[in-house]
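Provenance

Sequences were taken from public entries as deposited. Structures were produced by running a predictor on each sequence independently, with no templates supplied. The record for Glucarate transporter from Novosphingobium guangzhouense is shown for reference.
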Amino acid sequence: MDLSGSIEAAAPAQLRPTRVRYCIIALIFIITSLNYADRSTFSIAGASASAELGLDAVQTGFILSAFAWAYSLAQIPGGALLDRFGTRPIYIAAIGTWSFFTVLQGFAGFILGATVVTQLFLLRFLVGLCEAPSFPGNARIVAAWFPARERGTASAIFNSAQYFSLVAFAPLMGWVVHEWGWRAVFFVMGGLGLMAMGAFAAFIREPVRHKWANRAEIDLIREGGGLVEPVSRTEAREPTFTWNNIRQLLTSRMMIGVYLGQYCINVLTYFFVTWFPIYLVKDRGFNILEAGFVAALPALCGFVGGVAGGVMSDMLLARTGSITTARKAPLLAGMLLASLIMVAARVESQVGVVLLMSLAFFGKGVASLGWAVMSDVAPRKLAGLAGGVFNTFGNAAGIVTPIVVGILVAQAGSFDTALIFVGAHCLLTIVAYFVVVQKLERLELAA
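Predicted structure for Glucarate transporter:
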């Protein structure tokens, strides 16, 4: 009796899938948290740095905006680099270079040949340039490592790092500035980034090339629609970045409304990432150590709000079957709550201000369904290009917000008008989705 065939047939059934993909997303979550922390280093160090270097509010605003100039402009080119050379080498280079330029910011004022404002603007610009491939890279890693039924949760995990980052790193950076001065925060965060680069290089691979992933896990991912094999560089691809495709994206009323809405939501995001700790110190009387810890509370509320908004949207979709209702209802509730940031201009109590800011950031989290909307409406053949344009518009708020807030603070001598500016964009988001967008449905391209 030949038992070999029976043994071979039974072996695959006894092989349990490994769970390497969970370790992958955990590492991506940590790296993305560092990514966001490096964006906000000057926000934490800004009050001390401005005093030492003699920077006024307008100069500080331009420095804070530098990251977003590069990050916005490099979104589509960053995605193209990932497509051309693969996720792993581009992502490794991105982490290493943005961490290096973070470290260099600690030497601002000592670099010859340029003013300190120019030095800091250029270095933060380079950090933004190098971070551009990170989110498209995260999306590609999730597409490779997760079957379709797990992909939404995995995407939510790495996206939630923007909130966790402030919870974890704002107190750390505030403590570092308090103990060792503002320059030390750049050395510490840049050093952590270089360590993260080493961890990424050692652990991240395509599923079929990862020595820890067994055949059962790879088959599970593949059968669920995961892209477990790397794309051949010589494989012919139909070009998506054409002027005709761009024209169709930019002339669709629905897409214009979605892009405008994301820009307005990100005005609130970039206020928290850039000016909020400085606001706590200059307008509300917190010291830098207290500001680092206080800034973590709204971020934690944003994290909770982000989860709540996703759950609410999924429940509404299951109950109504309407994408429009499921996406717009949480957005309306969240943005109305976020607009309470304007009330903070009339509140004297430190506790009252922190509570209002926490409610505002919770509302912003509830309303942060932009990437879910894009998955619903982006043309099937242009998902990457539509997402790149979407992220470009959204991060343009990082250019405008720090500069405008700096000008408003310089003119008024306080943050009162700046808070009204930010809150008004919450209301404009509602206009974008309920007046401009109207019905949400997948955009069909003309031939």
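The two ends are 63 Å apart (CA to CA).
DSSP finds 21 helices and no strands in the chain.
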